[in-house]
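thought: fold this chain, then report.
action: predict
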Amino acid sequence: MKQKEPTTDASAIIRKRFFEGKPHRLAELEKLHADDAVARKIVALRTEAGLSQRDLAKLVGTTASVICRLEDADYEGHSLALLNRIAAALDRRVEIRFVPLRGAKRSSRRAVAAV
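observation:
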């Protein structure tokens, strides 16, 4: 029987070693990805509009420190109301999508239905 060649893909190695079969870690990783995506999107839109954090804060009616926190990938307090105010200031709208988690199984829906 031919042996499987070991992978050299660092992402695959990390995923297998630290996340495979560990749903709590996968859930935390997904949350981190979501927080990072929000922060990056705010930075990109603000930069594209040629605004500083202070400029955006004035348009939104908040402080530059609040915008700074929102642009930090570690920040967890994103409110939909504030995101809508930022979107409006940048002539955008917030759109929310529910997408399947990576590698998620549909069994969680059945577990809820059984409760």
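thought: worth noting. The radius of gyration is 19 Å.
final: tokens above.
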